[in-house]
Design brief:
Elements lengths: L10 E5 L3 H12 L3 E5 L3 H20 L5 H9 L1 E4 L2 H5 L4 E4 L5 H12 L7 E4 L10 H4 L5 E6 L7 E6 L5 H13 L3 E4 L9 H17 L5 H12 L5 H8 L1 H14 L3 H14 L34
Parallel strand pairs: 1-2, 1-4, 2-3, 4-5, 5-6, 7-8
Antiparallel strand pairs: 6-7
Length: 308
């Protein structure tokens, strides 16, 4: 099996035009790589393009890119629903579809059949481990998890190989991460949630369980975390930012694959919100109401708990 070097990467293929696909795709384009973003329908891609333009403006406003460089980055991005066109000359693939093992395996299998044999495959999964889907790629030695966080506010990425990942693949992904201006964190042993996400998910899981069990209110749980740790946001504000539908899917994985009873209770609590269409910041309402959530108030932490 042919192993390419980082200098051989010309075209990056992003599978999934959601928030993370947009961020990773724009970052790759901003660093000079021709970037194709694939998704199933043109309306999804149209919405993604509008979001990428806003993302570009955000990079400019924060001094991360000049306006000219931002426009050049957008010009390097191709959006398509044609899987063969997307995959035919890809050198590096990043999958960012919904957090479902079945969906990810189907997508990786589909593109394994149309991408060149040398294409390195990566998954941007938040909670799954790569060995669960390596077979679907048709190239397990060229596959690993390569996980991004918010590319506007952080430059940390996680690299998590599975037992069959070639050492050359890990080295290439590490060098590619550095080319993207990221700091790679190597996860030496497969772990659901990498390092940071594992810590964060345990924080959020415990917060959910405390609220679901009636131990304290959502607001006071956030106050406790924010006040003691001197943070601008508590676990429920964080979950609103992530999206409660995504948090629910993560808990479903925990409940099904890890047989975690706490996750079952958390799922029931979350469903009260997701069933009502309250998915967090992206829908304007979740645990808090946006664009001006209560936790952003200057007196939020000092507000008496008897008001809850």
């Amino acid at each position: 099996m042919k192993h390419i070097g980082v200098d051989d990467i010309r075209k990056v293929l992003i599978i999934g035009a959601g928030t993370m696909g947009q961020q990773v795709g724009f970052l790759c384009a901003a660093k000079g790589f021709d970037t194709t973003i694939y998704d199933l329908s043109q309306p999804i891609l149209d919405n993604a393009y509008a979001s990428i333009e806003k993302l570009s403006a955000l990079f400019v406003s924060r001094g991360l890119l000049s306006n000219d460089n931002a426009q050049d980055a957008i010009a390097r991005i191709t959006l398509t629903t044609d899987e063969r066109r997307a995959g035919e000359d890809a050198d590096f693939l990043s999958e960012s579809v919904t957090e479902s093992l079945d969906v990810k395996c189907r997508v990786l299998e589909k593109f394994g059949a149309v991408c060149p044999p040398h294409t390195v495959f990566t998954t941007n999964t938040s909670t799954l481990i790569p060995s669960l889907m390596a077979h679907a790629t048709g190239r397990p030695p060229l596959f690993a998890a390569f996980h991004f966080h918010n590319t506007v506010s952080t430059n940390i990425v996680d690299i998590m190989p599975h037992p069959g990942t070639a050492a050359e693949t890990v080295d290439l992904i590490r060098k590619f991460a550095i080319r993207l201006g990221q700091t790679p964190i190597l996860i030496k042993k497969e772990n659901h949630g990498y390092a940071f996400n594992a810590i964060l998910m345990n924080l959020c899981d415990t917060a959910l369980y405390l609220a679901a069990a009636g131990v304290s209110t959502i607001e006071d749980i956030d106050r406790a975390w924010m006040g003691i740790m001197r943070m601008d946001m508590g676990p429920f504000g964080i979950m609103d930012s992530v999206g409660l539908d995504t948090v629910l899917k993560i808990n479903e994985i925990w409940a099904q694959q890890l047989n975690d009873p706490k996750a079952m209770a958390n799922m029931e609590f979350l469903k009260k919100y997701t069933d009502a269409g309250k998915l967090g910041k992206k829908t304007g309402e979740g645990f808090y109401t946006y664009p001006n959530p209560a936790f952003k108030s200057k007196d939020f932490i000092s507000t008496a708990s008897v008001k809850n």
